[in-house]
Amino acid sequence: MKQSRHMLIVEDSPGDAELEVRALRQGGCELTYERVDTPEAMQAALESGHWDLVIADYSMPHFNGLAALKMLRDKGLDVPFILVSGAVGEEVAVEAMKCGADDYVLKSNLARLPLAVERELRDSEVRVERNRAEARYRSLVDRLPVGLYRISTGGDILEFNPALIDMLGFQDGDTLKRADVAELWLHAEERARFEAVIEKEGVVKNFEMEMRRRDGSIIWCEQSARAVYDAAGKVGHYEGVLVDITSRKRAEQEANRARDQVRDLALEAARLRSDFLASMSHEIRTPLSGIIGTGELLSRSALTPEQRRQTEIIRSSGELLLTTVNDILDFSKLAAGRVVLEKLDFDLVELTESLVDSFAATARAKGIELALHADIHMPTGLRGDPNRLRQILNNLVSNAIKFTQQGEVIVRANRVEDTADDVLVRFEVVDTGIGIASETQGRLFQPFVQAEGSTSRRFGGTGLGLVIAAKLAEQMGGEIGFESAPGKGSNFHFTARLEKGLEIVRPWMTATATSCFNGMRVLIVNDSPATRQVISEYLSSWGIENVAVGSGAEALDLLKLARPGDEKQIVVLIDEQISGVSALGLARAIKQHSDIKHNKVIMFSAESAAKNTTEVADAWITKPVRPSHLFSGLLELCKNTDGVGTKTIAAAPPSPIDNQPPQWRKAVRVLLVDDNLVNRTIGAQQLSVLGYTAEIADGARPGLELVSSRRPDIVLMDCEMPEMDGYEAVAEIRRREGDTRHTVVIALTAHATEGDRARCLNAGMDDYLSKPVKLKSLAEMLDTWVRGKLNHILTSEQHMTG
Predict the structure, then answer these.
(1) DSSP 157-204
(2) Fewest CB atoms less than 10 Å from the CB: which of 392, 488, 521, 622?
(3) What sign results for the dihedral spanned by CA atoms 474, 479, 483, 489?
(4) 393-425, pLDDT tens digit by residue?
(5) What DSSP string runs through 335-391?
(6) Which of the 8 DSSP states describes residue 665?
(7) Where do the DSSP E strands lie in 501-593?
């Protein structure tokens, strides 16, 4: 159903008006209408209602169509207007169209009127909708809280919205149009950067800059713009949007200031914590030096069994407290990210051998078998932090022994990846201990957590060791993990990526030495399956045919099967603690079995090999078995070792704290400088026990005088002293010596935080010992410097003894 239209007909002839209406209705147009024939009547009609279309006669006695058209347009009404006339020439039609008429129709051709009306009504509706859309768009633009603009390539502002006027502080659009755009930018370099981007890319997004308002105040803006190209592909103008982000920038600045304050507070808290830890380290380690040092010295005295037991309690309690202090310090340093790994050249096999040796006495006291399997084909020279690597292993091995009541603990080190520059090593510590319940395994690597609430009371410890180990392994490019079951033991393992360094020659293993094993067959007699496997793996890697058994009876049965005339040398490796039979009795039976020339016996003993001498054993090796010792022990028993040139090291290496210290130490003059009476007393006794010639100074200034007058070989310098500390004292020593002499100065400090060693070395000291200082550490440190820097002492001693 067509919509009914409301039309105004300006016509002085009622008959002509009726003809026009009839023509429209016949053409299908639904309409209502009103006829007027004077200006007054038309004025009243326009004011009284809404009209969809106006039809006007061109010529009337008192009124004409062009006057009606002018009246309509003067009122601002966008209503379709059709002019009709009895005779309209071309000039009249052109004039009517110029005045704004939409069409004209001759009265003699009214059949065309419905078509003209339909077309004009349709065009009017389109025009009205377009005008509405434009009005909505303009309203939207005017209401937007961001500035919109169009600007010419020459910098003239062509179009903008009210928000831009307000944002830039102008009174009206005319003053904004007259503004120099370049002056609105606070920084010319920002504008140049903006223009360079839009020229290259054609678009700029979210460009932040500072702008100067009309009143001179500064605001932060974010601008996005694009170039608009003409038909020829040239830039016609630019259009964009400008957003005031001053509030956001101020909020960001406030947030940054707050963040800086938080950071400063955190740094201050870290500094206070560091100072507190350093102070606590010093205050705790100073009395610990007296406790542990006195315990070590007492243990070397002639004591009754009860006194020796009480002395051991003092020593072990001091060691436990020292471990706790070290764990807390290490955890704090790791949590603060202040642990920096060193890069030093070292031999991994030597490190692991030394590691298991250090736990030998503890394992032996609990009756636990301790074994090491180190991949002897590992690159000899590795580069990394051997001290931190050993710290991880120390923790894992210590835990394994602590939580194992019987059985064995095996340490393994094997390559898993090998590149031109580095090697990934997997370490395992396997025990047969109490294991870990599944419900507590998930939180084992959390700080201060142990397997169960009673663990710390039963076994001791802070619960920090595994956390420290995990963080150190991560810093070494590896990861840590474990498998465990209650009552079945645990396997803790971790990986570490180590650089390849300078090759280190292992004198105990050469190709020439290995070749002499071709004529050897080895029988392993050990009731520990893990130890049998470790020894067998070593032997196989050296190309030695071997068989392992768990009892003496099995060993004798195998020897009875030996073929007469077999030229291969048979070497029997017997664990002194093998169950069910006397190890020495088994050795005698083997010796008596056949030709002594071809049957050799090596005995593994928990005690020092140097203390075991008996004709039934051809060699003794101290447990835990080290590959270097086993290799050298076998090498000694080869049929022909002439020209091999490998020194026998089957016996355990001499301890630096043997009861009989080397005679050459007496020639080494050591000056101990310390303001603490307890430290001086214990330090002097330690030096005396180790066999060094000691002098004592109770402060830095007396120490400087003794350095100048007595010229000691080595100075042990405490760092924390009143009036003049150790750092100032060593600086003065270096100033006085100049280039003529260099006295070895070793720092003694109760501080143990990150950077203390570097501070000592930077101050001019040669090395660093952290308190409490143990006899073994002190002996190793002094011996190292004597061998490395004071060879004249060793040379003089050799001449005296030669």
Answers:
(1) EEEE-HHHHHHTT-SSHHHHHTS-HHHHBS-HHHHHHHHHHHHHHSEE
(2) 488
(3) negative
(4) 988 998 899 889 888 999 999 999 888 889 999
(5) HTT------EEE-HHHHHHHHHHHTHHHHHHHT-EEEEEE-TTS-S-EEE-HHHHHH
(6) G
(7) 520-525, 545-549, 569-575
- Choose from 184-193, 440-449, 673-682, 763-772 the range with maximum mean pLDDT: 184-193
| Integer Cα distance of 650 and 627 in angstroms | 10
Cβ–Cβ under 8 Å, residues 551 and 527: yes
Tokens of 374: 């180190």
Residue 53 one-letter amino acid: L
DSSP 612-655: ---TT-SEEEESSPPHHHHHHHHHHTSS--TTT-PPP--SPPPP
Report the percent of the chain where pLDDT is more than 90: 24
Query: Which structure tokens are listed for 585?
Result: 């009795």
Average pLDDT of the chain, as a whole number: 82
User: In whole angstroms, how far apart are CA 107 and each of 53, 55, 83, 87?
Assistant: 18, 12, 10, 8
Categorize the per-residue pLDDT at 467 as very low, low, confident or very high, splitting at 50, 70 and 90.
confident
Q: What confidence tens digit (pLDDT) does each residue in 604-654 have?
A: 887 654 455 566 788 888 888 888 888 888 887 775 444 333 333 333 334
pLDDT tens for 730-773 read 999 999 988 888 899 999 887 655 567 788 888 899 998 888 88
Q: Which residue has the tokens 């159903």?
A: 1
d(CA 73, CA 319): 108
Task: List the one residue out of 373, 450, 454, 438 whose CA is nearest residue 409.
Answer: 373
Closest CA to 424 of 478, 497, 375: 497
What local confidence, expressed as pLDDT, does residue 447 receive? Answer: 56
* Fold entry, domain 511-636: Rossmann fold (3.40.50)
Main-chain dihedrals φ then ψ at residue 613, nearest 5 degrees: -135, 120
Q: What's the confidence (pLDDT) of residue 130? A: 83
CA–CA gap between residue 651 and residue 619 (Å, rounded):
8
User: Nearest 10 degrees: CA dihedral of 517, 518, 523, 526?
Assistant: 40
In contact, 609 and 621? CB cutoff 8 Å: yes
What is the number of alpha carbons within 13 Å of residue 265 lying toward its C-beta? 6
Every domain of the chain with CATH number 3.40.50.2300 lies at 5-140, 511-636, 663-801
Domain with CATH 3.30.450.20 in the chain: 144-244
Residue 236: which residues within 8 A CB-CB, separation 6 or more? 153, 228, 229, 230
Decide if pLDDT at 252 tops 50.
yes
Residue ranges matching CATH 3.30.565.10 in the chain:
344-500
- For the structural domain made of 5-140, what CATH number should be given? 3.40.50.2300
User: If you ran DSSP here, which 8-state letter would residue 407 be given?
Assistant: S
pLDDT at res. 391: 85
CATH 3.30.565.10 is right for the domain spanning 344-500: yes
Q: Which long-range contacts (CB under 8 A, 24 or more apart) does 322-326 make?
A: 322/285, 322/288, 322/292, 322/772, 323/461, 324/461, 324/462, 325/280, 325/281, 325/284, 325/285, 325/288, 325/752, 326/752
Tokens of 218: 């500064």
Element (H, E) at 800: helix 791-801
In order, the DSSP letters of 48-110 are HS--SEEEEESB-SS-BHHHHHHHHHHTT----EEEEESS--HHHHHHHHHHT--EEEEGGGG
Position 596 scores a pLDDT of: 47
Name the DSSP letter for residue 768: E
Q: How far is CA 182 from CA 110, 185, 204, 216, 372, in A?
A: 64, 6, 18, 14, 79
Structure tokens at 339: 């642990």
H helices of 205-304, in order, are 246-299
Residue 374 scores a pLDDT above 90 = no
Residue 446 pLDDT > 70:
no
Residue 653's Cα: distance from chain center in Å?
A: 41
For 144-244, CATH gives 3.30.450.20
Q: Which residues contact 55 (CB under 8 A, 6 or more apart)?
A: 7, 8, 9, 10, 11, 20, 82, 84, 113, 117
